[in-house]
Structure formats: structure tokens, C-alpha cells
Amino acid sequence: MARDPRYDLLFTPVRIGPVTAKNRFFQVPHCNGMGHAMPLAHAAMREVKAEGGWAVISTEECEIHPSSDLTPYVEARLWDDRDIPALALMSDKVHAHGALAALELSHNGPTASNLYSREVLIAPSHQPTKYGYPAQARAMDLHDIREYRRWHREAAIRGKRAGMDIIYVYAGHDLSLAMHFLQRRRNQRTDEYGGSLENRVRLLREVLQDTKDAVGDTCGVALRFATEELLGPGGMELNEARDIVGMLAEIPDLWDVNVAAWYNDSLPSRFAAEGAQEPFIDFVKKTTSKPVVGVGRFTSPDTMVSQIKRGVLDLIGAARPSIADPFLPKKIEEGRIDDIRECIGCNICVSGDMTVSPIRCTQNPTMGEEWRKDWHPEKIPVRRSESRVLVVGAGPAGLEAARALGQRGYEVNVAEARKELGGRVTRESRLPGLSEWARVRDWRVSQIGKLQNVSVYQDSQLTAQDVLDFGAEHVVLATGCHWRRDGYGRSNGLGIAGFADSDRIFTPDDIMDGRLPQGRVVIFDDDYFYLGSVIAEALRKHGCEVVYLTADDTIASWSVHTLDYRHIQVRMAELEVDQVVSHNIVGLEGTTLSLEHVWSGKPRTLECDAVVAITARLPDDALYQSLLSRQQEWTDAGIRSARCIGDALAPGLIAHAVYEGHRYARELDADPTGDVVFKRHFHTD
Ligand code: ADP
Ligand code: SF4
User: Name one Pfam family in it (predicted).
Assistant: First the structure.
């Protein structure tokens, strides 16, 4: 297919100092939980994006010195020359596809940890550390400032030796000394580096100049700059940011601008639409003649073109859209717009970094598996037999299994009990703020629609007899799960007295099926993620009074890993949802919930008309169990294997279901290689 001429603009080159980006697609720095600890996996992940057409591929933030140690987070590292080869792996692979490699140097000062290096943290002035470590950062003296500049300069030179084409100076996300010196709340110095704006900008100006002097002959020098922290006075504010951009306008070769902190930058789709940063960054291009890149979870080529034509951006920055679809630029280039696998803004990718584990993505199950499993986002080995496969259930697990099996060339039949496809994704996407999650279904359904060898039957509830009669060689049971009604969960291993037989108990399934309670409703969240707050929002909109109850010490605690947490708290406050934390339920009698404080044991009661129990789920695996019990009939029916995947095996995130569906498809007819699951770094054999 030919490219739509409307998108030609996206494929024009942009000069960044001495280097040239071949098009406008720029993968901005993003964490990935692999970094310096898993350099082969990291390089392979970046390579796939270069292959997918991104003109620039950046690293994550890169520590420049032991005093900038980010342990336990695993980022890039250039403490000394021994770290060069790991990063060179990446730049070689990126260059092989004609893309530029960019390196985001950073010293996080008081927002580092030094848990590994045990260096004393440094900062513009004495202050507590950001992440609650029980230690303070000490004020840097003028010698320290000179040393910091030297470390940065030397790291830039090492970056150049590692083959990097663009070197970043990082002053974003409240994560970098160059930014900390700008912030009044972090910089209380009275010397030439503190006080007036001119003084607070001094260090950033010097570091930019140092970097240009050190590597600017062959490398572009980029400045990543936060224009707004949304903290009011004391934080970076737009007015001051405008002055700073004015003062430094022509020094960097590229401006990379966004909002700080990370939780305001990588906003989940529940809290921000595509292009939401525009009002905070659109002034930059008017102030500098240098190219500007910015992010906005851009997946629509029309929006991208509009950003450029309206003079907001020169380069389309992306982290999440490049994770969900490393081949996004290629697909636009080849006129395959409806093949783009759009990011859904769930931030499960962020949770990898946050939990110190390799990156993962709900939409792209191959993300993070490029090296260790040899999974490619676009290519998959062709089938190794003529087998027919029956997939039961068209939720994320079943749809992804069917799509990937179809891509391999198998003849696939999908049976779905409901009239609609998508399973939990369809149902959850109707809850407030989650509409973009339907993209998980839509992309797979549209891809399946292009495959002649995959047939989908809706409104087709299968029994074990149906499956036996169908006689496919392989049967995949992706039949999902349901929420428990008896209170069993993390906090109540024996269930909750009065729950199972009360008609006042509602589950998330009831809410998603439109069976909503009335009056004063207690949401008991024993799940700790997004669902409690989403249901609270739905019930407030429905007119209920809502009390959000959890045995945990705060609501939605796991959502800190997806950057939702603060936004959930704010929204709950806006919606006037009452919170009762650190209380478990002892029992329900009529309209009275008996509670107990989890630490003191002190009893208390709560009156309510209904309780929404978000506790635990049970697999809907009756069909699988029934098939297993009739295993002696399989041979006659022609069945060679039956496997349960996704929520029907073990309820989890949508990301787990997609991953398991994909994995099933990859592993069908694979060599029986024993129990080797994936490659690992640092084997000694
Ligand atoms: P997962 O997240 O594992 O993909 P979902 O709950 O999203 O699970 O999807 C499971 C799908 O399976 C649902 O759409 C459900 O209607 C369907 N399903 C369950 N049992 C059967 C069955 N016996 N026959 C056909 N479809 C079924
Ligand atoms: Fe987008 Fe979610 Fe994938 Fe992250 S995990 S890239 S937010 S779809």
C-alpha cells in the first residue's frame, strides 16, 4: 500500500546539530527495567524500534557517576569506561537500521538513591531525599559543582565513544541536578548558583555548553526540559519556564519539552487524552529556532501532522506508542494505518520499571521479550503442522491466541458465548475513563478480519460435547473468570460472614453488567489496583453515596506503579468519596457492616445499603474440567491437546491474558525442548 500523501510531512528529515533524523518519529527516553543489568535484552528491544522506522532511539536515563546511583531501579549506566560496551551494543543495533541513537545523561542528586554505591547524596542545598529514604542530601560546594560538570562532560565523551549520536542534558521530571538547581524549593543557595533566575540557570547553561564543547562536533546536544510541575510557586511554573527557554533558546541543538513529574507526563488515558501537553509546551517553538520534540501518547498520524503544521512540534516524541507498536512509523509509511496497535494508556509498561522487572506492555506482548524469547512484534514462525485449533472465548487471551495462530497460518475457529467480542476488555472499557482499553479488542478483531484462515462465531456458548464434536486437534480454553461474592480474598481467607447469601452484595461483574446498587454503598477493595476507584466513580455518577473501604493502609496502593495513584486520590476527593482505610470487614448483618481496625483491633460499624466486594476471582474453567474428565474420548474426537489460558487459568491483568494468548500461539507445535523458558544474562556456562 502507498503512503497517504497527507502524511508525507512526517517523513521529512530534521537536522539536530551535526546529525540528521531521517524522519519526524522520535523515541524519547523511557525506562524499561532492563538497563545496565540486561544489556542484550535492552539493545534488542531498542533495535526492534529502529527496525520499525523510528528515526531516533533514546536510552532511558543514564547514571553518570556512583553518586547518581538509582538502585533499585535499573537504568543505563556510564560511571566509567567499563560501561561503554553495554551501551555500544544498543547504538550498533540502532545504526544498523539507519536510526540515530540518543543518550539521556543524568545525575539525579537528591532524587537518586546511592543505595548501591553508598555515596552521600548531593543537592543544590541541604534537603531530604525524594523517595523517603531516611537520609538527607548534602549541599554541593563550588568544588562539587566543578566535579559534577566534569562527570557530566566525561560521561558525554563516553557516550560518544559508545556510538551515541545525540547526547541529552536532562532537566526534567524533577529528576536531575540540572533541574534541581532551577527549582526554588530545591535551591536555596546564596552564591552565584542560587537566588535570581539568572543564577539558578547558570549550572544548566554551563552543562549544556560543556556538553557542546565535549561532543558537539559530531553529536547533537538535546535539552530535556520540564516546563511545568503543577506545584504552584516553588515548582517550575510556565512563566519561569518561558524565561528559561528564552535565556537558553539557541544553545541546545534540540529542545525536548514536557511536564513534570513523571506522573504528570505519562498520564494514564483515564486522566488525559492524546496531545494533552500542548498547552504547556506550545510556546517553546515560538521562542527558539531549534527543533522541538514533545510527547502526547500520539498514535494518530492526523494528530501528528497537525502538531507539526500548527507549529507545536517538529518531531513527534513517543515512549508508550513506540512500546505498544514499535512499527508505528513503518505502518504509516506503508499506508497501513489500521494495522497500528495503539497504546491504551494503561501504564503497565511503567509498572515494569517500578517493580524493578523487565518492561511489559498490555498491547504488545513481545515487548521485553525481543532477546530473551526471540519474539518479534511483527514476525512469527509459520505453522509447523496442518492442525486445526479451536479457541473458546474471545477475551484478550482468546483473541490474541487466535490472531497470532492465524498469523502463523493455522486454521483457527473462535467461539464466543456472548454476542459481543472482547470479554473483560469490552466490559471494563464501559467503565468511566477506560474507553481506550477497547483498543485491545479492536486491533485484534480487525487483524483477525484480514485473515482468511480464522473464523469467529459469536453468540456460541460451547459445551464439552460441542468441543468433542468439533474435533479440532488443539483446543484453547480462554473462558475467563468471575468475581467472588463470598468475601474471600487477601484479607479474609475464610470469606466474610453474611456475604454469600446477602442480596446487598454486588461484584464488579454486576456493575459491568449494569446491575447497580442504590443509596449508600461501601466499596470493599481487597484488590488494591484501579477497579475500586473506577467503580467508585461509576457509582457516584449513578447518584450513590460512596464509602471506599480497604484493609490496606491507603486506597489503590498498587496504582502507584502505573502512575495513577495521585490522580485517583484527587479524583476521589473531587467526587467526595469517603475513605475508610486500615479496616477489615468482620461481617454483614442487614445493613450493618462490622469492621475491625487492622492494627488496633478496635471494632466499628458502618451502615450501608449495599457492598461492592472487589476481593478475588475464580476461573471459569468448568468447560476445561469437563473436557479433562472426558479425556478418554479425545482420541476418537481427534483432539490432541486442550489448554486453559488467561483468566480461566489464573485471573490477572489484561496484560497477562494477552501475553498468555500470544505465548500459546508461539509455542504450539514447538520443539519439546524440556523446560528452557527464556535466555538469561550472566549465565556462567
Ligand atoms: P481473558 O482475560 O482470559 O481473555 P475474558 O473473561 O476477558 O478472559 O474472556 C473470556 C470470554 O470467554 C468471555 O467473553 C466469555 O463470554 C467467553 N466464554 C466463557 N465460557 C465460554 C464457553 N463455554 N463458550 C464460548 N465462550 C465462552
Ligand atoms: Fe501503552 Fe499500556 Fe502498552 Fe504502556 S503498557 S505502552 S500504556 S498499552
Answer: Oxidored_FMN
Q: Tens digits of per-residue pLDDT, 615-643?
A: 999 999 999 999 999 999 999 999 999 99
pLDDT tens figures, 317-352:
999 999 999 999 999 999 999 999 999 999 999 999
Q: What pLDDT digit, counting tens, does each position of 235-273 carry?
A: 999 999 999 999 999 999 999 999 999 999 999 999 999
- Ligand approaching nearest to the C-alpha of 478: 1
**Phi, psi for residue 168 in degrees, rounded to 5:** -90, 140
| Grid-cell match 468482620, residue found | 586
The stretches of 168-300 forming alpha helices (DSSP H) are 177-180, 197-215, 238-248, 262-265, 278-281, 284-287
C-alpha cell at 301: 498520524
Q: What is the pLDDT of residues 546-575, one digit of tens each?
A: 999 999 999 999 999 999 999 999 999 999
DSSP 622: H
pLDDT at 675: 61
- Could you tell me if the CB of 508 is within 6 A of ligand 1? no
Q: Which cell numbers in the block locate residue 634?
A: 479425545
Spatial separation of the C-alpha atoms in residues 522 and 545, rounded to whole Å: 8
- Cα separations (Å) of 227 from 143, 245, 273, 435, 613? 29, 9, 19, 29, 42
Q: Which ligand ends up closest to the CA of 399?
A: 1
62: cell is 543514564
CA 34, 38, 39 angle in degrees (round to 5)? Answer: 105
Ligand 1 proximity of 392 Cβ (cutoff 6 Å): yes
Instruction: Tell whether ligand 1 has an atom less than 6 A from the beta carbon of residue 648.
Output: yes
Closest CA to 598 of 557, 650, 553: 553
Ligand 1 contacts CB of residue 461 (under 6 A):
yes
Q: 100-106 and 56-63: which strand pairing?
A: parallel
Give SS3 for 426: helix
The end-to-end CA distance of the chain, in Å, is: 47
